[in-house]
Amino acid sequence: MRCDRILILAAGRASRMKRSAADASKDSNLSLQAFEHDALNRPKPMIRIGPQGEPLLQFILEQALCAGFTEATVVLHPDDAITQPFVTDWNETPTGLKMKVGWARQDEPLGTAHAVQCALEQDPVAAGHAFVLCNGDNVPTRQSLAKLRSEPNGQAVLAYDREHLGLPREKTKDFAILEARGNHLQSIVEKPPSDSVDRMQKNAGTVHVSMNLFRLNAGVLLPFLSELRPHPTRGELELPTAVQHMVDSGLSIEWIDAKDEVLDLTRIADVTGVQRGLKILAPFELEVCASTPADVRTARDAGAHRVELCAHWPCGGLTPPETDIRSSVVAGVPVHVLIRPRAGHFCFNEAEKAWMTDQIAASFEAGAVRAVVGGLDRQSRLDIEQLEAWAMRFGGHRLVVHRALDASADWRSDVDALQRIGIHRLLSSGGAETAVQGKENIKHALHLGFDVTVGSGVRPDQLADWQRAGAHSFHASCRREVNRSTAYFDGRDFPVNAEEVAAWFR
Fold first, then answer.
1. What is d(CA 451, CA 122) in angstroms, rounded to the nearest whole number?
2. Is-contact 2 127, C-beta < 8 A?
3. pTM of this prediction?
4. CB 291 within 8 A of CB 494
5. What domains can be seen in the chain, in order of their start residue?
């Protein structure tokens, strides 16, 4: 089941935040007074907590992007005139998402289940596809989001071990508590009494809490939302209740243990902890070129943020088998799939282009996040006509143009053409043999707003210099040669080398 979309609940009234901000305004000793205006006048996800004044929502979307999501739906309060213009403008800047973002309005504050229903009705998820739900005042790690997005068994919940959340125990008493039966969710209890929590701690050795991070099938969920009745005390339509009804009806919700931090912004006093916790966000992204599912796992375990999957690496890479894509996706890191029918030049005939179109579709169906594509015309320029056709069919946000661009007779003009057709992601050396030699072209593309994954001869010791130039995404092969030759067979292999991957993080 494909999962491309994250749904972010950002329509809350933030009553606890506003009350705490009002209290802070009366205390002249509180350093939090700097955030008082935002807390009282902006939606909670738009409180500017980042070092450069970035709002909380920006960090949520960035984590989602790094986890492999290509689409987002943000649910807004009807009076919110701030969030949509900010995200829309930021999306097109050099540091923006280049993500497909949709919007929904929750006209009445009727609870989380109602907010999800509004989102699914106003910005529908494709039939048979899953989505991941996230609160607009929580920032999960990219690792947790990627694990949930790539869950192979359908619907799932992240069950957070309370001891690893990085939040005060008293605070977690306001969260929903989860109980498992084997590897599946058994019960979810919203705001349970203290004695119930103590019992769970005694029986299970820990307490698992819900941060409202679910992977759900929209088509399966909607009937349960439609039939939901308001909570008898709180008067709201609560998503945990709908999920419990799903479990009670015999539907399976996979249990995913999570021992990660989550940044939570409920009250103004939480600002300091959230700011300290921004360390969970990686300052750069490393993409490793992988040829097998085993390569993908090696790269993941050594710290890689995503992989480009290809077969036959020694000849420059070809499209991998669909089975390898499916086996790689479940590793839990975003998978970009190279689409290339053969070795040699990039001038493809019509039959090859048709095959590539089919392979892009098959790669997405197998769970790939993006397809890495390219081709040249007879004038050694990018085949813009074909790239535009793929962008129209699959969405420009799902495509990365590979180093066929670096073989172009006019690199900068072709970059301009890509911008016109809505493809904003490149894997490039800047039209030169090595990225260092093509640095000025790469800087030019970054300035235009492209998301450039810098590749060819890039080393960890160059990282700081590239970051100063504005680059944040890097491609590395990280290979080692293994020779198992016989008298009649060249058995050379080039698996991913964990040590070379890990060197990027020292």
1. 29
2. no
3. 0.86
4. yes
5. 3-280 (3.90.550.10), 285-505 (3.20.20.380)
What secondary structure does DSSP assign to 442-506, as a single string? HHHHHHHT-EEEE-SS--GGGHHHHHHTT--EEEE--B--EE--BTTB--EE--B-HHHHHGGG-
User: Quick one: how far is CA 424 from the chain centroid?
Assistant: 17
Chain segment 234-263, per-residue pLDDT in tens: 888 999 999 999 999 999 999 999 998 899
Tell me the C-alpha distance between 178 and 162, whole Å: 11
Average pLDDT for the chain: 91
Q: How far apart are CA 301 and CA 361, in angstroms?
A: 28
Tokens linked to 102: 């949709």
Of 113-127, 169-183, 238-252, 322-336, give the lowest mean pLDDT range.
169-183
Q: CB neighbours of 99 closer than 8 A, spacing ≥ 6? A: 61, 65, 69, 70, 71, 72, 91, 397
Q: Please give the C-alpha separations between residue 28 and each of 3, 23, 34, in angstroms, as whole numbers.
A: 48, 10, 11
Q: Which of 409, 308, 434, 96 is nearest to 417 (CA)?
A: 409
Percent of the chain with pLDDT over 70: 97
Contact 381, 410 (CB under 8 A): yes
Asked whether the predicted pLDDT for residue 153 surpasses 60, the reply is yes
Q: How far is CA 218 from CA 129, 136, 327, 418, in A?
A: 7, 19, 24, 34
| Distance in angstroms (rounded) separating the CA atoms of residues 379 and 396 | 24
The letter for the amino acid at 505 is F
Q: How far is CA 403 from the centre of its chain?
A: 24
Amino acid identity for residue 47 in this structure = I
- Vertex 60, ends 338 and 133: CA angle to 5°? 85
Residue 358: pLDDT band (50, 70, 90) is: very high
The CA distance from 392 to 357, in Å, is 12
Q: Buried b vs exposed e over 29-39: b needs ≥16 C-beta within 10 Å?
A: eeebeebbebb
Question: Which contacts of 55-60 are long-range, i.e. CB under 8 A and separated by 24 or more positions?
Answer: 55/86, 56/136, 56/137, 56/139, 56/265, 56/274, 57/8, 57/10, 57/83, 57/86, 57/87, 57/136, 58/90, 59/139, 59/263, 59/278, 59/281, 60/8, 60/134, 60/136, 60/138, 60/139
